[in-house]
Amino acid sequence: MNERYSRQILFSGIGREGQEKIRNKHVLIIGAGALGSGNAEILTRAGVGKITIIDRDYVEESNLQRQQLYTEEDVSEKLPKAAAAEKRLRAINSDVEIRALIDDAIPEVLEELISDVNVMIDATDNFETRMIINDISQKYNVPWIYGACVGSFGMSFSIIPGKTPCLNCLLRTIPLQGMTCDTGGIISPTVQMVISHQTAEALKILVEDWEAVRTSFVSFDLWRNQYTSLKMGKAKFAGCLSCGEDRTYPYLDRENMTKSTVLCGRDTVQIRPSNQGKISLERLATQLLSLGYKVKGNPYLLSVEMGSERMVIFQDGRALIHGTKDLIHAKTIYQRILG
Amino acid sequence: MNKVLFFAHLRDAVGKELIEINASGKTVGELKEELTEKYHLPRMETVMTAINEEFASNDEVIQDGDEIAFIPPVSGG
């Protein structure tokens, strides 16, 4: 073992044996935004054998404040995040086998990637993808680490199949109007704190120190100086369709996914969420206005100007994205606003 | 009496981090409904609830002196 990892080897939780284990493991990072950048950088520096990172978006100026792998040059070239991340990660550590995919993390794609993965890191910005990760985790018996943040508030929870409750036990349904960084803002320290929780858990899992893995659900608010840690034993739900006895892995089923379609003859994509329910257009309008978006609306719909696109959101969560024919891009815009 | 704590955007909706009310004998679900009406809280059905720092389901009955916390799962990343 070379000098490169000497300080990490010196740490009693890892040691020479732990470093060797880290070297032989594969981590799948889903998302290459703020959480994905930070997780990928730390794990690349730590000398993980293989890292796969998947993302469907491209680098924009508003990412630079917190997405640590990207540069102004990446913005001007409009590089896909996966491609920009791959370039930077390879420059950081040539020992690590980096694989970057410019793709949407839908069930088929993740099922193809999962075979030799030891842990998945959640770096997504929406609950639909998290529920897919959660079902994949249960089906293929691979742990995953939930992480999320908005404003100064962040949270993390390690999900170990057969041991902890799963995300579906906790939520039972996909929250339709989860707060996102595009609606609630975000400061970089919040991101870093979530990343620290996720990567510490990942290292424990990679060195197989299962005793050390945190079983509580952690949440914190860095601005209001709150830190809470919840015991989760009671959250395990026997009837859970993702991890219970009669499991069906509902989120791997196409029927339960957000449907997007290009509207015939128009430069418009329609997005129809899987979980239809009434959303508060008034509250959403107030949030978007305070963020400087141009918003127009009536009791039935809300129209938001977003650069070259315009999104029209209906009360049932359905939306039309005008100005694009790209399904993945349209879904990205939608989930940015509606989580 | 019971202390009820609110996190993230729920705290903004209520206007403070902590309220004291008598919720003893009510279920978590009933308390959620009551607070949703009083403070116009958004989407409480997927908000996680803790009683004395332990996850609690909607059917759990609140006892006198229990500390309740509402933690909304956020999706940013």
UniProtKB/TrEMBL annotation, chain A:
Q: Which family does it belong to?
A: Belongs to the HesA/MoeB/ThiF family.
Gene Ontology cellular component list:
cytosol
**Could you tell me the keywords of this UniProt record?**
Nucleotidyltransferase, Transferase
Residue ranges occupied by any THIF-type NAD/FAD binding fold domain in the UniProt entry:
5-240
Q: Which CDD domains match?
A: ThiF_MoeB_HesA_family (cd00757)
Where is coiled-coil annotated? none
Looking up Gene3D superfamilies in the UniProt record yields: NAD(P)-binding Rossmann-like Domain
**NCBIfam families registered for this protein in UniProt:** PRK12475.1
Identify a single GO molecular function assigned to this protein: ubiquitin-like modifier activating enzyme activity
- What organism does the UniProt record list as the source? Neobacillus thermocopriae
- This chain's protein is named Thiazole biosynthesis adenylyltransferase ThiF
Automatic annotation (TrEMBL), chain B:
Q: Which GO terms describe its biological process?
A: Mo-molybdopterin cofactor biosynthetic process
UniProt keywords (A-Z) are: Molybdenum cofactor biosynthesis, Nucleotide-binding
Q: Which InterPro entries does the annotation name?
A: Beta-grasp_dom_sf, MoaD_arc-typ, MOCS2A, Mopterin_synth/thiamin_S_b, ThiS/MoaD-like
Q: Which Pfam families match?
A: ThiS
A cellular component term (GO) from this record? molybdopterin adenylyltransferase complex
For this UniProt entry, the molecular function terms from Gene Ontology, in alphabetical order, are: nucleotide binding
Q: In which pathway does it act?
A: Cofactor biosynthesis; molybdopterin biosynthesis
Outline the subunit composition: Heterotetramer of 2 MoaD subunits and 2 MoaE subunits. Forms a stable heterotetrameric complex of 2 MoaD and 2 MoeB during adenylation of MoaD by MoeB. During catalysis MoaD shuttles between the two heterotetrameric complexes.
Function per UniProt = Involved in sulfur transfer in the conversion of molybdopterin precursor Z to molybdopterin.
Give the PANTHER family listed for this entry.
MOLYBDOPTERIN SYNTHASE SULFUR CARRIER SUBUNIT
Q: What family, per the record?
A: Belongs to the MoaD family.
Q: What is the name of the protein in this document? A: Molybdopterin synthase sulfur carrier subunit
Organism equals Neobacillus thermocopriae
